[in-house]
Amino acid sequence: MAVTPLSATNSSAGLSASDETRSPAGPLLGQSLAELTEWVQAQGQPSYRGKQLYQWIYQQGARSLQDITVFPKAWRQAMESVDLGRSALHHRVVASDGTVKYLLKLADGQIIETVGIPSAKRLTVCVSSQVGCPMACDFCATGKGGFVRNLATHEIVDQVLTVQEDFGQRVSHIVFMGMGEPLLNVPNVVAAIRCLNRDVGIGQRAMTLSTVGVPGRIRALAAEQLQVTLAVSLHASNQPQRLQLIPSAGAYPLAVLLDECREYVQITGRRVTFEYILLAGLNDQPANAAELAQHLRGFQSHVNLIPYNPISEADYQRPSEASIRNFVAELESRRIAVTVRYSRGLDENAACGQLRASQP
User: pLDDT tens across 286-340, in order?
Assistant: First the structure.
C-alpha cells in the first residue's frame, strides 16, 4: 500500500502544504534560492539580487531588508514593510555548563523557548515546533502550560539562526525536542528540516526528531525520505503506565506504536531511538527494564535513558544513581543498546517550558 508523505497531509491544526504558500511580502526566511530569486524579480529587480538576498538571510544574519546594504537604498525604503521572519530576543540565561536558553518573542507576541548546547566538538540547538503543546504529558512543564498554535517554518528556522549568531559558530546538530509535538505540525517541521539542510547547511543525519507518537504519522514520516534520526518517547514499559504519563496513549496503544516503529525501520533502514524518562519509584525498577527489553527484542533501536528533572507542577522525583545503574545493567544484560543522557543547564530552569512559565 502506498504511503502518503506527511508534507502532503493535513496536520491536526488543519494545515496542508498548500496552506504554507507565503505572500510575496514575506516572511522570506525559509524560502529557497530559487524562490527568493523569483520574488526579487517580481519586485522588478535583476535576478542576481536573489542570490544576494539569500546570502544575507542565511549567512549574514540580516533581520530586515534595511540591513542588506548591497541593495539600492531607494528599493530598501520601498520594501520597508517586507518581513524577513526573524523573531525578537525576549530573554536569555546562561547556565554554569555553558548551555544558553533563549526566550524568543514571535510577531504575534507569543513566547517560545530554544536552547543552545555547546560541547567540545559540536553546537546543538534544541528547537520548539509549537507554542505550548497539546499532548499534556503529566511530567512536562510545557504540557502543563497548554497549547496555543503551531510554529511556522520561518519561526523554526529562526531559532537555529539565533543560536548560531549568538554563539558565533556554526550549529552542527539540531534536536526537535523543545516545546510541542513535531508530528502535529508536519508541513512546517518537514519544510524547516529541508531548509536547515539545504540553506543553512546542516546535515539531516545530524538532526533528531522527537515524538511522543501520533497515530499514522511515523509510518508516513518514512515516506518523506528524510535522513533524520527518529526518537520516540516511550517513558513507560507497559500500556497502563504509559497512559498514566501520556494521556494521548489512550488513542495510540504501546503495541500499535511499536509496530509502526518497526515499519519505519523496514522502510528507511534507519534505527529508532527510544527515549525513556526515569521517574523514581514509578518506571525505574529492574522489572520495568526487563519489560522494556522484551518489547525491543529483535528491534534495530537504541534506548536513551533520561533521569527526570523535577518541576514544581508535578510530584515526580529524580531516581537515585543506583537505580539508574541497575536499570542500565538490566537492559545491557538483555543486549539492548542504551545510553544515559543527562540534561544540561540544570541550574537554569532546565526542563522544557520552565523558563517560559517563569518569565512575564
Answer: 999 999 999 998 888 999 999 998 876 678 899 999 999 999 999 999 999 999 9
Alpha carbon distance 39, 5 (integer Å): 27
Q: Which of 80, 113, 260, 313 is catalytic?
A: 113
Q: What is the pLDDT of residues 154-203, one digit of tens each?
A: 999 999 999 999 999 999 999 999 999 999 999 999 999 999 999 999 99
Q: Among 171, 146, 169, which Cα is nearest to 156's? A: 171
Grid cell digits, residue 78 = 520601498
DSSP 15-78: --GGGGPPBTTB--TT--HHHHHHHHHHTT--THHHHHHHHHHHTS--SSGGG-TTS-HHHHHH
Q: Of all helices (H) and strands (E), which one includes residue 155?
A: helix 153-167
**Contact yes or no for 164/170 (Cβ under 8 A):** yes
Distance CA 42, CA 64 (A): 19
DSSP string for residues in 265-324 = HHHH---EEEEEEE-TTTT-SHHHHHHHHHHTTT--EEEEEEE----TT----PPPHHHH
Contact, 207 vs 200, CB < 8 A?
no
β-partners of residue 306 are 277
d(CA 91, CA 38): 36
0.85 exceeded by pTM: yes
Give backbone dihedrals phi and psi of 266, rounded to 5 degrees, phi first: -65, -40
User: pLDDT tens digit string along 38-52?
Assistant: 999 999 999 999 999
Let me know if 113 is a catalytic residue: yes
CA–CA separation, 95 vs 216, rounded Å? Answer: 38
Q: What is the CA radius of gyration of the chain?
A: 21
* Cβ-contact 187, 221 below 8 angstroms: no
Task: Retrieve residue 285's grid coordinates.
Answer: 525498577
pLDDT at 13 over 50: no
Q: Which of 137, 195, 261, 352 is catalytic?
A: 352
Distance CA 43, CA 174 (A): 34
